[in-house]
Amino acid sequence: MTDRWALAPAEDGGVEVAALGPDGLPAGPVRWEADLAAAVRGRPEVARWVWRSTAEVYPRLLAAGVRVERCYDIEDAETLLLGHAGRYGEPRSAAAALARLRGGPVPPDPPQRAAEPGSQSPLFEPQSVHLPLTDLVEVYADQQRRHDTTAHPDRMRLLTAAESAGMLVAAEMNRAGLPWSAETHRRVLHELLGERYAGGGEPRRLAELADQVSEAFGRRVRPDLPADVIKAFAQAGIKVKSTRRWEIESVDHPAVKPLVEYKKLYRIWVAHGWSWLQDWVRDGRFRPEFLAGGTVTGRWVTNGGGALQIPKVIRRAVVADPGWRLVVADADQMEPRVLAAISRDPGLMEVAGRETDLYQAVSDRAFSGDRGQAKLAVLGAVYGQTSGDGLKNLAALRRRFPKAVAYVDDAARAGEEGRLVRTWLGRTCPPAAGAGDAEEAGIPQDDPVERPVEDGWGPGYASTNTRARGRFARNFVVQGSAADWTLLLLAALRQACARMSAELVFFQHDEVIVHCPEEETEAVVAAIGEASELAGRLTFGETPVRFPFTTAVVECYADAK
DNA sequence: AGTTTCGGCGCC
DNA sequence: AAAGGGCGCCGAAACT
Length: 561
What we know:
By secondary structure, this protein is α+β, with helices and mostly antiparallel strands. The protein contains 21 helices and 18 strands. The strands form six sheets. Strands 3-2-1-4-5 form a five-stranded mixed β-sheet. Strands 16-17-11-18 form a four-stranded antiparallel β-sheet.
Protein backbone atom coordinates (compact mmCIF):
# COMPACT_ATOMS: atom_id res chain seq x y z
CA MET A 1 0.00 0.00 0.00
CA THR A 2 1.55 3.26 -1.05
CA ASP A 3 -1.57 5.31 -1.58
CA ARG A 4 -1.67 6.99 1.82
CA TRP A 5 1.40 8.50 3.43
CA ALA A 6 1.74 10.45 6.64
CA LEU A 7 4.02 13.42 7.01
CA ALA A 8 5.15 15.29 10.12
CA PRO A 9 7.56 18.22 10.14
CA ALA A 10 10.25 17.57 12.72
CA GLU A 11 11.55 20.07 15.22
CA ASP A 12 15.01 19.99 13.65
CA GLY A 13 13.63 21.37 10.40
CA GLY A 14 13.44 18.00 8.65
CA VAL A 15 10.38 15.88 8.09
CA GLU A 16 9.21 12.41 9.05
CA VAL A 17 7.35 10.37 6.42
CA ALA A 18 5.80 6.92 6.42
CA ALA A 19 3.55 4.83 4.22
CA LEU A 20 0.33 3.89 5.98
CA GLY A 21 -1.36 0.53 6.05
CA PRO A 22 -5.09 -0.19 5.90
CA ASP A 23 -5.38 0.41 9.65
CA GLY A 24 -3.94 3.91 9.27
CA LEU A 25 -0.72 2.99 11.08
CA PRO A 26 2.75 2.94 9.46
CA ALA A 27 3.13 0.02 7.10
CA GLY A 28 6.90 0.35 7.10
CA PRO A 29 9.68 2.31 8.76
CA VAL A 30 9.28 5.98 9.64
CA ARG A 31 11.89 7.83 7.62
CA TRP A 32 13.50 11.15 8.39
CA GLU A 33 14.35 13.43 5.50
CA ALA A 34 15.94 16.83 5.47
CA ASP A 35 13.67 18.61 3.00
CA LEU A 36 9.88 18.71 3.29
CA ALA A 37 9.27 19.74 -0.31
CA ALA A 38 11.67 17.16 -1.70
CA ALA A 39 10.03 14.43 0.37
CA VAL A 40 6.67 15.16 -1.20
CA ARG A 41 7.95 15.93 -4.69
CA GLY A 42 9.84 12.64 -4.74
CA ARG A 43 6.67 10.61 -4.11
CA PRO A 44 4.25 11.50 -6.90
CA GLU A 45 2.50 8.13 -6.49
CA VAL A 46 1.06 9.13 -3.10
CA ALA A 47 -2.70 9.58 -3.48
CA ARG A 48 -3.32 11.25 -0.14
CA TRP A 49 -1.00 12.94 2.35
CA VAL A 50 -2.05 12.70 5.97
CA TRP A 51 -0.82 15.56 8.09
CA ARG A 52 -1.64 17.50 11.23
CA SER A 53 -2.51 20.82 9.70
CA THR A 54 -2.80 21.95 6.10
CA ALA A 55 -2.18 25.54 7.15
CA GLU A 56 1.14 24.47 8.66
CA VAL A 57 2.42 22.32 5.83
CA TYR A 58 0.86 23.26 2.53
CA PRO A 59 1.95 26.90 2.21
CA ARG A 60 5.56 25.69 2.58
CA LEU A 61 5.02 23.12 -0.15
CA LEU A 62 3.40 25.65 -2.47
CA ALA A 63 6.25 28.07 -1.86
CA ALA A 64 8.57 25.33 -3.11
CA GLY A 65 6.37 24.75 -6.15
CA VAL A 66 4.90 21.46 -4.92
CA ARG A 67 1.20 20.71 -5.30
CA VAL A 68 -0.55 17.68 -3.82
CA GLU A 69 -3.61 15.89 -5.15
CA ARG A 70 -5.31 15.13 -1.84
CA CYS A 71 -4.69 15.44 1.85
CA TYR A 72 -6.26 14.56 5.19
CA ASP A 73 -6.09 17.29 7.81
CA ILE A 74 -6.09 15.60 11.20
CA GLU A 75 -6.96 18.64 13.29
CA ASP A 76 -9.80 19.63 11.01
CA ALA A 77 -11.17 16.09 11.14
CA GLU A 78 -10.84 16.17 14.92
CA THR A 79 -13.00 19.29 15.03
CA LEU A 80 -15.67 17.67 12.86
CA LEU A 81 -15.62 14.37 14.75
CA LEU A 82 -15.79 16.04 18.15
CA GLY A 83 -18.68 18.14 16.90
CA HIS A 84 -20.51 15.10 15.61
CA ALA A 85 -20.13 13.49 19.03
CA GLY A 86 -21.64 16.58 20.63
CA ARG A 87 -18.31 17.46 22.26
CA TYR A 88 -18.00 20.77 20.55
CA GLY A 89 -16.00 22.71 23.12
CA GLU A 90 -13.15 20.29 23.69
CA PRO A 91 -9.62 21.07 22.52
CA ARG A 92 -9.15 19.92 18.96
CA SER A 93 -5.41 19.89 18.49
CA ALA A 94 -3.75 16.60 17.58
CA ALA A 95 -1.94 16.75 20.91
CA ALA A 96 -5.26 17.01 22.73
CA ALA A 97 -6.71 14.14 20.70
CA LEU A 98 -3.70 12.00 21.60
CA ALA A 99 -4.08 12.88 25.27
CA ARG A 100 -7.73 11.85 25.20
CA LEU A 101 -6.72 8.60 23.54
CA ARG A 102 -4.09 7.81 26.13
CA GLY A 103 -5.96 9.19 29.11
CA GLY A 104 -3.49 11.92 29.96
CA PRO A 105 -4.13 15.57 30.78
CA VAL A 106 -5.64 17.31 27.74
CA PRO A 107 -3.77 20.46 26.71
CA PRO A 108 -5.87 23.49 25.74
CA ASP A 109 -5.70 24.71 22.16
CA PRO A 110 -3.11 27.40 21.52
CA PRO A 111 -4.61 30.83 20.90
CA GLN A 112 -5.12 32.00 17.34
CA ARG A 113 -3.31 34.97 15.99
CA ALA A 114 -5.08 37.86 14.33
CA ALA A 115 -4.26 38.45 10.70
CA GLU A 116 -1.76 41.13 9.83
CA PRO A 117 -1.53 42.82 6.48
CA GLY A 118 0.80 40.98 4.15
CA SER A 119 1.47 38.01 6.42
CA GLN A 120 -0.27 34.69 6.40
CA SER A 121 -1.11 33.23 9.77
CA PRO A 122 -1.59 29.53 10.28
CA LEU A 123 -4.60 28.38 12.26
CA PHE A 124 -2.40 27.02 15.03
CA GLU A 125 1.08 28.01 16.06
CA PRO A 126 2.98 25.11 14.52
CA GLN A 127 5.82 24.84 17.00
CA SER A 128 3.66 24.68 20.09
CA VAL A 129 1.72 21.61 19.02
CA HIS A 130 4.34 19.53 17.29
CA LEU A 131 3.80 15.77 17.41
CA PRO A 132 6.16 13.06 16.17
CA LEU A 133 4.77 11.01 13.31
CA THR A 134 4.15 7.86 15.35
CA ASP A 135 1.94 9.84 17.76
CA LEU A 136 0.21 11.64 14.93
CA VAL A 137 -0.81 8.49 13.10
CA GLU A 138 -2.12 7.02 16.33
CA VAL A 139 -4.64 9.86 16.33
CA TYR A 140 -5.31 9.29 12.63
CA ALA A 141 -5.97 5.58 13.06
CA ASP A 142 -8.36 6.34 15.90
CA GLN A 143 -10.18 8.90 13.77
CA GLN A 144 -10.69 6.28 11.06
CA ARG A 145 -12.46 4.11 13.63
CA ARG A 146 -14.50 7.04 14.93
CA HIS A 147 -15.86 7.74 11.46
CA ASP A 148 -17.50 4.31 11.63
CA THR A 149 -19.41 5.20 14.78
CA THR A 150 -21.17 8.20 13.20
CA ALA A 151 -24.73 8.21 11.93
CA HIS A 152 -23.62 7.95 8.29
CA PRO A 153 -19.96 6.83 8.12
CA ASP A 154 -19.74 7.24 4.34
CA ARG A 155 -20.97 10.80 4.54
CA MET A 156 -18.68 11.62 7.45
CA ARG A 157 -15.68 10.28 5.54
CA LEU A 158 -16.76 12.39 2.59
CA LEU A 159 -17.06 15.43 4.84
CA THR A 160 -13.58 15.20 6.34
CA ALA A 161 -12.10 14.49 2.92
CA ALA A 162 -14.01 17.36 1.35
CA GLU A 163 -13.03 19.84 3.98
CA SER A 164 -9.40 18.79 3.69
CA ALA A 165 -9.72 19.43 -0.03
CA GLY A 166 -11.21 22.82 0.80
CA MET A 167 -8.14 23.59 2.84
CA LEU A 168 -5.91 22.81 -0.14
CA VAL A 169 -8.04 25.15 -2.24
CA ALA A 170 -7.84 27.87 0.40
CA ALA A 171 -4.06 27.59 0.66
CA GLU A 172 -3.72 27.77 -3.12
CA MET A 173 -6.05 30.78 -3.32
CA ASN A 174 -4.09 32.48 -0.56
CA ARG A 175 -0.95 31.99 -2.58
CA ALA A 176 -2.51 33.15 -5.86
CA GLY A 177 -4.30 36.22 -4.58
CA LEU A 178 -7.07 38.08 -6.41
CA PRO A 179 -5.89 40.10 -9.44
CA TRP A 180 -6.24 43.72 -8.38
CA SER A 181 -5.61 46.95 -10.25
CA ALA A 182 -4.43 49.50 -7.72
CA GLU A 183 -4.61 52.17 -10.41
CA THR A 184 -8.29 51.44 -11.10
CA HIS A 185 -9.00 51.31 -7.39
CA ARG A 186 -7.44 54.77 -6.91
CA ARG A 187 -9.47 56.12 -9.81
CA VAL A 188 -12.70 54.80 -8.29
CA LEU A 189 -11.81 56.27 -4.92
CA HIS A 190 -11.11 59.63 -6.47
CA GLU A 191 -14.40 59.59 -8.38
CA LEU A 192 -16.38 58.73 -5.26
CA LEU A 193 -14.52 60.60 -2.53
CA GLY A 194 -12.65 63.40 -4.26
CA GLU A 195 -9.14 64.55 -3.41
CA ARG A 196 -7.35 63.48 -0.29
CA TYR A 197 -6.04 66.18 1.96
CA ALA A 198 -2.63 66.07 3.61
CA GLY A 199 -2.66 64.68 7.13
CA GLY A 200 -4.95 61.74 6.49
CA GLY A 201 -8.20 63.56 7.23
CA GLU A 202 -11.46 63.16 5.37
CA PRO A 203 -11.27 63.48 1.60
CA ARG A 204 -12.99 66.42 -0.07
CA ARG A 205 -16.36 64.83 -0.81
CA LEU A 206 -16.80 63.58 2.77
CA ALA A 207 -15.82 66.98 4.18
CA GLU A 208 -18.41 68.64 1.94
CA LEU A 209 -21.13 66.23 3.01
CA ALA A 210 -20.24 66.70 6.68
CA ASP A 211 -20.60 70.46 6.15
CA GLN A 212 -24.02 69.96 4.55
CA VAL A 213 -25.14 67.84 7.49
CA SER A 214 -23.95 70.47 9.95
CA GLU A 215 -25.64 73.22 7.96
CA ALA A 216 -28.92 71.30 7.96
CA PHE A 217 -28.80 70.92 11.71
CA GLY A 218 -27.65 74.49 12.30
CA ARG A 219 -24.65 73.39 14.32
CA ARG A 220 -21.48 71.38 13.95
CA VAL A 221 -22.38 67.68 13.80
CA ARG A 222 -20.00 64.81 13.16
CA PRO A 223 -21.93 62.39 10.96
CA ASP A 224 -19.63 59.49 11.83
CA LEU A 225 -20.61 59.65 15.52
CA PRO A 226 -24.01 57.99 16.09
CA ALA A 227 -24.41 59.62 19.50
CA ASP A 228 -23.83 63.07 18.01
CA VAL A 229 -26.32 62.44 15.20
CA ILE A 230 -29.01 61.12 17.55
CA LYS A 231 -28.57 64.19 19.76
CA ALA A 232 -28.79 66.52 16.79
CA PHE A 233 -32.04 64.92 15.62
CA ALA A 234 -33.42 65.15 19.15
CA GLN A 235 -32.65 68.87 19.24
CA ALA A 236 -34.55 69.18 15.96
CA GLY A 237 -37.51 67.52 17.66
CA ILE A 238 -37.08 64.13 15.99
CA LYS A 239 -36.64 61.01 18.04
CA VAL A 240 -34.53 58.28 16.47
CA LYS A 241 -33.29 55.23 18.33
CA SER A 242 -30.31 54.63 16.11
CA THR A 243 -28.67 56.06 13.03
CA ARG A 244 -29.23 52.96 10.93
CA ARG A 245 -29.96 53.87 7.36
CA TRP A 246 -33.46 52.36 7.21
CA GLU A 247 -34.47 54.31 10.29
CA ILE A 248 -32.89 57.59 9.22
CA GLU A 249 -34.42 57.37 5.75
CA SER A 250 -37.94 57.38 7.18
CA VAL A 251 -37.27 60.79 8.77
CA ASP A 252 -38.22 64.03 7.03
CA HIS A 253 -35.29 66.39 7.60
CA PRO A 254 -32.83 68.15 5.26
CA ALA A 255 -29.87 66.47 6.98
CA VAL A 256 -31.01 62.99 5.96
CA LYS A 257 -29.88 63.04 2.35
CA PRO A 258 -26.29 64.22 2.93
CA LEU A 259 -26.08 62.05 6.06
CA VAL A 260 -27.01 58.84 4.24
CA GLU A 261 -24.63 59.70 1.41
CA TYR A 262 -21.89 60.45 3.94
CA LYS A 263 -22.33 57.11 5.68
CA LYS A 264 -22.18 55.22 2.39
CA LEU A 265 -18.97 56.92 1.31
CA TYR A 266 -17.46 56.91 4.78
CA ARG A 267 -17.79 53.14 4.76
CA ILE A 268 -15.87 52.92 1.48
CA TRP A 269 -13.22 55.29 2.79
CA VAL A 270 -12.50 53.49 6.07
CA ALA A 271 -12.99 49.89 4.91
CA HIS A 272 -11.78 49.91 1.29
CA GLY A 273 -9.96 53.21 0.88
CA TRP A 274 -6.37 54.24 0.29
CA SER A 275 -5.00 52.72 3.48
CA TRP A 276 -6.71 49.41 2.68
CA LEU A 277 -5.01 49.49 -0.71
CA GLN A 278 -1.69 50.16 0.97
CA ASP A 279 -2.18 47.32 3.45
CA TRP A 280 -3.60 44.52 1.33
CA VAL A 281 -2.59 44.91 -2.32
CA ARG A 282 0.93 43.92 -3.42
CA ASP A 283 2.23 43.28 -6.90
CA GLY A 284 -1.17 43.48 -8.52
CA ARG A 285 -2.89 41.04 -6.17
CA PHE A 286 -5.18 41.37 -3.16
CA ARG A 287 -4.06 38.74 -0.68
CA PRO A 288 -6.55 37.95 2.02
CA GLU A 289 -6.31 34.72 3.97
CA PHE A 290 -9.12 32.33 3.14
CA LEU A 291 -9.99 29.88 5.88
CA ALA A 292 -12.03 26.82 4.86
CA GLY A 293 -14.62 25.79 7.42
CA GLY A 294 -14.03 28.85 9.55
CA THR A 295 -17.62 28.98 10.80
CA VAL A 296 -19.82 26.44 12.56
CA THR A 297 -21.97 26.15 9.44
CA GLY A 298 -18.93 25.32 7.33
CA ARG A 299 -18.95 28.55 5.44
CA TRP A 300 -15.53 29.97 4.82
CA VAL A 301 -14.23 33.08 6.44
CA THR A 302 -11.37 35.34 5.50
CA ASN A 303 -8.85 37.08 7.67
CA GLY A 304 -7.79 40.49 6.56
CA GLY A 305 -9.05 42.95 4.08
CA GLY A 306 -12.72 42.03 4.34
CA ALA A 307 -12.41 39.81 1.28
CA LEU A 308 -15.98 38.53 1.52
CA GLN A 309 -17.42 42.03 1.74
CA ILE A 310 -15.89 43.79 -1.22
CA PRO A 311 -18.41 46.54 -2.08
CA LYS A 312 -19.86 46.35 -5.57
CA VAL A 313 -18.32 49.66 -6.65
CA ILE A 314 -14.86 48.51 -5.61
CA ARG A 315 -15.11 45.36 -7.75
CA ARG A 316 -14.17 47.62 -10.63
CA ALA A 317 -10.59 47.13 -9.39
CA VAL A 318 -10.62 43.34 -9.85
CA VAL A 319 -9.07 43.06 -13.31
CA ALA A 320 -7.64 40.04 -15.10
CA ASP A 321 -4.03 39.96 -16.25
CA PRO A 322 -3.41 40.94 -19.90
CA GLY A 323 -4.63 38.16 -22.18
CA TRP A 324 -6.39 36.50 -19.27
CA ARG A 325 -10.04 36.49 -18.19
CA LEU A 326 -12.09 36.09 -15.05
CA VAL A 327 -14.72 33.38 -15.16
CA VAL A 328 -17.22 34.48 -12.55
CA ALA A 329 -19.64 31.69 -11.62
CA ASP A 330 -22.61 32.11 -9.34
CA ALA A 331 -24.77 29.21 -8.16
CA ASP A 332 -28.41 29.93 -8.98
CA GLN A 333 -30.75 29.85 -5.94
CA MET A 334 -28.40 27.56 -4.09
CA GLU A 335 -30.18 27.43 -0.75
CA PRO A 336 -33.65 26.35 -1.91
CA ARG A 337 -32.07 23.77 -4.21
CA VAL A 338 -30.13 22.41 -1.26
CA LEU A 339 -33.33 22.36 0.79
CA ALA A 340 -34.94 20.31 -1.97
CA ALA A 341 -32.04 17.85 -1.96
CA ILE A 342 -31.95 17.35 1.81
CA SER A 343 -35.70 17.33 2.46
CA ARG A 344 -36.60 15.16 -0.55
CA ASP A 345 -39.80 17.16 -0.87
CA PRO A 346 -41.32 15.85 -4.11
CA GLY A 347 -42.69 19.19 -5.29
CA LEU A 348 -39.56 21.17 -4.50
CA MET A 349 -37.33 18.48 -6.03
CA GLU A 350 -39.40 18.66 -9.17
CA VAL A 351 -38.98 22.42 -9.31
CA ALA A 352 -35.27 22.21 -8.44
CA GLY A 353 -34.75 19.55 -11.06
CA ARG A 354 -34.96 22.21 -13.73
CA GLU A 355 -32.27 24.70 -14.48
CA THR A 356 -34.70 27.55 -14.94
CA ASP A 357 -35.46 30.20 -12.31
CA LEU A 358 -36.53 28.32 -9.21
CA TYR A 359 -38.35 31.20 -7.58
CA GLN A 360 -40.46 31.72 -10.68
CA ALA A 361 -41.42 28.04 -10.68
CA VAL A 362 -42.28 28.15 -6.97
CA SER A 363 -44.40 31.25 -7.49
CA ASP A 364 -46.24 29.62 -10.39
CA ARG A 365 -47.23 26.78 -8.08
CA ALA A 366 -47.93 28.52 -4.81
CA PHE A 367 -48.05 32.30 -5.27
CA SER A 368 -50.06 32.96 -8.42
CA GLY A 369 -46.95 33.93 -10.30
CA ASP A 370 -45.64 36.54 -7.86
CA ARG A 371 -41.93 35.77 -7.91
CA GLY A 372 -41.05 38.32 -5.25
CA GLN A 373 -43.48 36.77 -2.77
CA ALA A 374 -42.17 33.30 -3.55
CA LYS A 375 -38.59 34.34 -2.93
CA LEU A 376 -39.48 36.02 0.35
CA ALA A 377 -41.39 32.95 1.46
CA VAL A 378 -38.56 30.55 0.68
CA LEU A 379 -35.92 32.70 2.32
CA GLY A 380 -38.26 33.33 5.25
CA ALA A 381 -38.62 29.58 5.75
CA VAL A 382 -34.87 29.11 5.65
CA TYR A 383 -34.07 32.05 7.91
CA GLY A 384 -36.96 31.58 10.31
CA GLN A 385 -38.78 34.76 9.51
CA THR A 386 -41.58 35.31 11.97
CA SER A 387 -43.24 38.56 11.04
CA GLY A 388 -44.84 40.58 8.32
CA ASP A 389 -45.77 38.82 5.12
CA GLY A 390 -43.47 36.00 6.09
CA LEU A 391 -46.03 34.05 8.11
CA LYS A 392 -48.74 34.36 5.48
CA ASN A 393 -46.33 33.31 2.74
CA LEU A 394 -44.97 30.49 4.82
CA ALA A 395 -48.45 28.99 5.08
CA ALA A 396 -48.77 28.93 1.29
CA LEU A 397 -45.34 27.39 0.99
CA ARG A 398 -46.18 24.74 3.56
CA ARG A 399 -49.32 23.68 1.71
CA ARG A 400 -47.46 23.15 -1.54
CA PHE A 401 -44.07 21.92 -0.23
CA PRO A 402 -44.88 20.28 3.10
CA LYS A 403 -41.80 18.09 3.44
CA ALA A 404 -39.44 20.95 2.75
CA VAL A 405 -40.98 23.23 5.35
CA ALA A 406 -41.26 20.35 7.82
CA TYR A 407 -37.54 19.69 7.41
CA VAL A 408 -36.52 23.16 8.59
CA ASP A 409 -39.31 23.24 11.19
CA ASP A 410 -37.95 20.00 12.66
CA ALA A 411 -34.46 21.47 12.76
CA ALA A 412 -35.78 24.56 14.50
CA ARG A 413 -37.57 22.46 17.11
CA ALA A 414 -34.43 20.37 17.68
CA GLY A 415 -32.44 23.55 18.15
CA GLU A 416 -34.93 24.95 20.63
CA GLU A 417 -34.84 21.71 22.60
CA GLY A 418 -31.05 21.68 22.66
CA ARG A 419 -30.72 18.57 20.50
CA LEU A 420 -27.93 18.15 17.95
CA VAL A 421 -28.63 19.22 14.40
CA ARG A 422 -26.52 18.07 11.46
CA THR A 423 -25.89 19.01 7.85
CA TRP A 424 -26.38 16.42 5.16
CA LEU A 425 -22.79 15.22 5.42
CA GLY A 426 -22.75 15.33 9.21
CA ARG A 427 -21.29 18.66 10.25
CA THR A 428 -22.91 19.26 13.60
CA CYS A 429 -24.39 22.36 15.13
CA PRO A 430 -23.07 23.00 18.63
CA PRO A 431 -25.70 22.33 21.28
CA ALA A 432 -26.79 25.35 23.24
CA ALA A 433 -26.07 24.13 26.70
CA GLY A 434 -22.93 22.78 28.23
CA ALA A 435 -20.52 23.46 25.40
CA GLY A 436 -17.97 26.09 26.23
CA ASP A 437 -17.45 26.97 22.63
CA ALA A 438 -21.08 27.47 21.81
CA GLU A 439 -21.39 30.96 23.16
CA GLU A 440 -18.02 31.90 21.80
CA ALA A 441 -19.16 30.68 18.41
CA GLY A 442 -22.19 32.92 18.60
CA ILE A 443 -24.78 30.30 19.47
CA PRO A 444 -27.48 31.91 21.57
CA GLN A 445 -27.47 30.54 25.10
CA ASP A 446 -30.22 29.91 27.59
CA ASP A 447 -31.71 32.88 29.33
CA PRO A 448 -31.40 32.81 33.10
CA VAL A 449 -35.19 32.87 33.34
CA GLU A 450 -37.51 31.41 30.75
CA ARG A 451 -40.65 33.40 30.30
CA PRO A 452 -43.94 32.66 28.57
CA VAL A 453 -44.55 34.06 25.13
CA GLU A 454 -47.54 34.19 22.84
CA ASP A 455 -47.09 34.48 19.14
CA GLY A 456 -48.03 33.13 15.77
CA TRP A 457 -46.81 29.67 16.68
CA GLY A 458 -49.22 29.40 19.59
CA PRO A 459 -48.65 29.91 23.27
CA GLY A 460 -45.66 28.29 24.84
CA TYR A 461 -42.72 28.74 27.12
CA ALA A 462 -39.75 29.84 25.12
CA SER A 463 -37.22 32.53 25.80
CA THR A 464 -36.00 34.94 23.20
CA ASN A 465 -32.75 33.04 23.10
CA THR A 466 -34.48 29.71 22.76
CA ARG A 467 -36.18 31.12 19.70
CA ALA A 468 -32.90 32.43 18.41
CA ARG A 469 -31.44 28.95 18.76
CA GLY A 470 -34.33 27.58 16.75
CA ARG A 471 -33.70 30.05 13.95
CA PHE A 472 -30.01 29.27 14.09
CA ALA A 473 -30.61 25.53 13.78
CA ARG A 474 -33.20 26.06 11.04
CA ASN A 475 -30.74 28.02 8.98
CA PHE A 476 -27.84 25.75 9.92
CA VAL A 477 -29.16 22.66 8.14
CA VAL A 478 -29.58 24.54 4.87
CA GLN A 479 -26.61 26.90 4.96
CA GLY A 480 -24.38 24.11 6.29
CA SER A 481 -25.50 21.51 3.75
CA ALA A 482 -24.91 24.11 1.06
CA ALA A 483 -21.39 24.50 2.43
CA ASP A 484 -20.97 20.69 2.25
CA TRP A 485 -21.90 20.81 -1.42
CA THR A 486 -19.66 23.77 -2.26
CA LEU A 487 -16.66 21.93 -0.79
CA LEU A 488 -17.19 19.08 -3.23
CA LEU A 489 -17.70 21.59 -6.02
CA LEU A 490 -14.44 23.37 -5.23
CA ALA A 491 -12.55 20.09 -4.96
CA ALA A 492 -13.73 19.02 -8.41
CA LEU A 493 -13.09 22.41 -9.95
CA ARG A 494 -9.62 22.52 -8.41
CA GLN A 495 -8.69 19.25 -10.11
CA ALA A 496 -10.01 20.53 -13.43
CA CYS A 497 -8.06 23.78 -13.13
CA ALA A 498 -4.90 21.83 -12.36
CA ARG A 499 -5.11 20.31 -15.84
CA MET A 500 -4.95 23.83 -17.31
CA SER A 501 -3.24 27.10 -16.49
CA ALA A 502 -6.39 28.25 -14.71
CA GLU A 503 -6.24 29.34 -11.08
CA LEU A 504 -9.01 29.60 -8.50
CA VAL A 505 -8.69 33.10 -7.09
CA PHE A 506 -11.90 33.79 -5.15
CA PHE A 507 -14.71 31.97 -3.39
CA GLN A 508 -17.64 33.52 -1.60
CA HIS A 509 -20.34 31.12 -0.35
CA ASP A 510 -22.00 30.43 -3.71
CA GLU A 511 -19.69 32.18 -6.12
CA VAL A 512 -16.28 31.31 -7.53
CA ILE A 513 -13.86 33.21 -9.71
CA VAL A 514 -11.38 31.42 -11.95
CA HIS A 515 -8.54 33.39 -13.53
CA CYS A 516 -7.38 31.84 -16.77
CA PRO A 517 -5.93 32.56 -20.21
CA GLU A 518 -8.54 33.75 -22.70
CA GLU A 519 -8.28 30.51 -24.69
CA GLU A 520 -9.19 28.41 -21.65
CA THR A 521 -12.41 30.20 -20.73
CA GLU A 522 -14.63 27.78 -22.61
CA ALA A 523 -13.03 24.79 -20.90
CA VAL A 524 -13.35 26.47 -17.51
CA VAL A 525 -17.05 27.19 -18.03
CA ALA A 526 -17.56 23.55 -19.00
CA ALA A 527 -15.55 22.41 -15.98
CA ILE A 528 -17.79 24.40 -13.67
CA GLY A 529 -20.85 22.62 -15.03
CA GLU A 530 -19.20 19.23 -14.67
CA ALA A 531 -17.97 20.02 -11.16
CA SER A 532 -21.47 21.07 -10.15
CA GLU A 533 -22.97 17.86 -11.49
CA LEU A 534 -20.34 15.73 -9.75
CA ALA A 535 -20.66 17.64 -6.47
CA GLY A 536 -24.42 17.20 -6.46
CA ARG A 537 -24.16 13.47 -7.02
CA LEU A 538 -21.36 12.91 -4.51
CA THR A 539 -22.95 15.02 -1.80
CA PHE A 540 -26.61 14.10 -2.02
CA GLY A 541 -26.56 10.79 -3.86
CA GLU A 542 -29.12 10.14 -6.56
CA THR A 543 -31.32 13.22 -6.71
CA PRO A 544 -33.20 14.99 -9.47
CA VAL A 545 -32.02 18.33 -8.06
CA ARG A 546 -29.79 20.37 -10.36
CA PHE A 547 -27.34 23.06 -9.35
CA PRO A 548 -26.97 25.39 -12.33
CA PHE A 549 -24.51 28.27 -12.41
CA THR A 550 -24.67 31.63 -14.04
CA THR A 551 -21.25 32.21 -15.54
CA ALA A 552 -19.76 35.36 -16.98
CA VAL A 553 -16.46 35.66 -18.80
CA VAL A 554 -15.12 39.14 -18.12
CA GLU A 555 -11.97 41.16 -17.80
CA CYS A 556 -13.36 43.05 -14.82
CA TYR A 557 -15.33 41.57 -11.91
CA ALA A 558 -17.73 44.51 -11.88
CA ASP A 559 -18.91 43.54 -15.36
CA ALA A 560 -20.10 40.12 -14.22
CA LYS A 561 -23.55 41.24 -13.13
C1' DA B 1 -2.16 52.73 27.47
C1' DG B 2 -3.93 48.62 25.97
C1' DT B 3 -7.89 45.54 25.20
C1' DT B 4 -12.79 44.47 24.48
C1' DT B 5 -17.41 45.74 23.08
C1' DC B 6 -20.62 48.42 20.34
C1' DG B 7 -22.82 50.56 16.35
C1' DG B 8 -23.17 50.46 11.78
C1' DC B 9 -22.78 48.45 7.29
C1' DG B 10 -20.42 45.67 3.54
C1' DC B 11 -21.12 40.87 1.38
C1' DC B 12 -23.72 36.11 0.82
C1' DA C 1 -44.29 44.74 21.22
C1' DA C 2 -41.24 42.70 18.19
C1' DA C 3 -40.31 39.07 16.02
C1' DG C 4 -34.36 36.68 9.61
C1' DG C 5 -29.45 33.22 9.28
C1' DG C 6 -24.06 33.63 8.59
C1' DC C 7 -19.74 36.50 8.65
C1' DG C 8 -15.53 40.77 9.02
C1' DC C 9 -14.13 45.38 9.51
C1' DC C 10 -13.66 50.04 11.17
C1' DG C 11 -13.54 53.83 14.68
C1' DA C 12 -15.49 55.17 18.91
C1' DA C 13 -16.86 54.08 23.37
C1' DA C 14 -16.33 51.50 27.34
C1' DC C 15 -13.72 48.89 29.89
C1' DT C 16 -9.36 47.34 32.78
